[in-house]
Design brief:
The protein has about 475 residues and is an alpha/beta fold. It contains 16 helices and 17 strands. It folds into 3 domains: about 10-55, no CATH class; about 65-95 and about 115-300, Endonuclease Chain A (Endonuclease, Chain A, 2-Layer Sandwich), CATH 3.30.870; about 315-480, Endonuclease, Chain A, CATH 3.30.870.
Length: about 475
């Protein structure tokens, strides 16, 4: 007769076997990345019960459930916002960029619905200390509309100032829309959504999550940071809304960042992305001059917004980075809080360095996500062997996302150099052709480089064995990070 203990073990084993079979079938049918498929398959088979449940919670691309509706919304959205397609397949603005950049323009023409446009002005804003007052001042001065999208809207002093300004705008008749990622809305308790609704501020969550606790490694999030005021003034970059980014206030983990104020036709590109996200989330159509007023030239910069996500815009960011690296002739400077590029990007960095391009990569010496910190250490050897320079920036943690090529082309926005930004999250970046602006970004990077430590191959190889094993084990989790 089978004992009760043995019976329970048999039932548990059978349950795991069935769950693993179902999870493996789903992996084989849906995963397009071989490494992710192998990693998840190994986890669901080798970790009884825990593996299949982890895949159910974190491995399933739930955006597929909404992809049909998303495509329908995007098709209607393009028809109703023809400004997003007011160009030929080859941009009419290619003559505005310096010689040698036309091939990159042709590439981004084909991966972004937005045209390359001149007449823009973009101003860097350092940390929350410069950016938050400028953003709140813009909200306070709004007369027609405010579009605000953020990944994290955290409770605190900064949030209170934003909510007060937004509520005052609603009270004076401004059309206000606030979109917060479904996961980022849960970073503080109780969620900020409740307070925004109490103050009468129209707010929605992008793909709400049911998991009770915030998970910094969750995917398929709206990681975009966009503020557009009256349709003619915009802000974007890396800043979330949280007290840690205000360096003038004490914080257990202060966070540096770089944000930007934009004027000119490129503002419509950010607004267009927000309007699509809002329509997909709520079904509401935001059209007309309240949201898209005529825009005059604001400066000499040529720029374009590029949306990226796991829907039809997938790989736009990856292809842009590959194209920029291929166009580099002298120097490339990259600043990112998370550096876990896919093999094609690592190869592109190495090829650029081997061609004689000076490739400089700045990452924080101390990150805010330990698994990512460890995994990127395991991934750096081929980057250093290829001749790239890696600098570890000093505290406080720097969340800036910056890239400059040859002192002419710059990329700003919300995207990191990690699998989530490259494949799994919704991002928005802006490519800029301007030697003046590129010089300003290089100056910011130079200031952040001060006090940094250059990581060498000798130092990396001299890590204790236990650290190499720890970092290697974290690197195996890259598809989930």
């Amino acid at each position: 007769m089978i004992s009760e203990t043995l019976l329970r073990e048999l039932i548990a084993g059978l349950a795991h076997f069935l769950l693993a079979i179902l999870a493996t079938a789903h992996i084989l049918l849906t995963k397009s990345e071989v490494r992710a498929a192998i990693g998840w398959t190994g986890l669901v088979w080798l970790a009884p019960i825990f593996g299949p449940i982890s895949y159910l919670l974190f491995g399933i691309n739930r955006i597929r459930r909404a992809v049909g509706r998303m495509r329908q919304v995007r098709g209607t959205h393009v028809v109703e916002h023809p400004a997003a397609l007011r160009r030929d397949p080859v941009s009419a603005s290619t003559h505005l960029v310096p010689a040698g950049w036309q091939s990159l323009v042709r590439l981004t023409d084909r991966i972004s619905v937005e045209p390359l446009e001149d007449g823009n002005a973009i101003e860097p804003l350092l940390d929350g200390d410069q950016a938050y007052p400028a953003m709140i001042e813009a909200i306070t001065g709004a007369r027609r509309s405010i579009s605000l999208a953020t990944y994290i809207f955290d409770r605190g002093v900064v949030a209170d100032e934003f909510m007060a300004a937004l509520a005052a705008a609603v009270a004076r008749g401004v059309e206000v829309r606030v979109l917060i990622d479904g996961l980022g809305a849960r970073y503080s308790r109780p969620p900020i959504i409740v307070e925004l609704q109490r103050r009468g501020i129209p707010v929605a969550t992008f793909i709400p999550v049911r998991f009770p606790l915030p998970n910094p490694y969750a995917n398929l999030r709206n990681h975009r940071k966009i503020l557009v005021v009256d349709g003619h003034l915009a802000f974007t970059g890396g800043l979330n809304i949280r007290d840690a980014c205000l360096l003038s206030r004490a914080s257990p983990f202060p966070t540096r960042d770089t944000h930007f104020r934009l004027r000119g036709p490129v503002v419509h590109h950010l607004q267009d992305t927000f309007v699509f996200d809002w329509r997909f989330t709520t079904g509401e159509h935001l059209v007309g001059e309240t949201w898209f007023p005529p825009l005059a030239s604001a400066g000499p910069m040529v720029a374009r917004g590029i949306a990226d996500g796991p829907d039809e815009t997938r790989d736009a960011l990856l292809l842009t980075l590959l194209g920029a690296l291929a166009s580099a002739r002298e120097r490339v400077q990259i600043m990112t809080p998370y550096f876990l590029p896919d093999p094609p990007l690592i190869d592109a960095l190495r090829v650029a360095a081997l061609r004689g391009v000076r490739v400089e990569i700045l990452i924080p010496a101390r990150g805010n996500l330990r698994l990512v910190q460890w995994a990127q250490m395991a991934q750096l050897p081929p980057v250093l062997r290829g001749g790239c320079q890696v600098l570890l920036t000093r505290a406080p943690f720097d969340h800036s996302k910056l890239m400059v090529v040859d002192g002419t082309w710059a990329l700003i926005g919300s995207a990191n150099w990690d699998p989530r930004s490259l494949r799994l999250n919704f991002e928005h970046v802006v490519e800029c052709y301007s030697t003046e602006f590129a010089s300003a970004i290089e100056a910011i990077i130079a200031a952040k480089r001060e006090g940094s430590h250059e990581l060498t191959r000798v130092e990396l190889n001299a890590r204790p064995l236990w650290r190499k094993l720890r970092d290697g084990a974290a690197w195996l989790m890259q598809p989930y990070l």
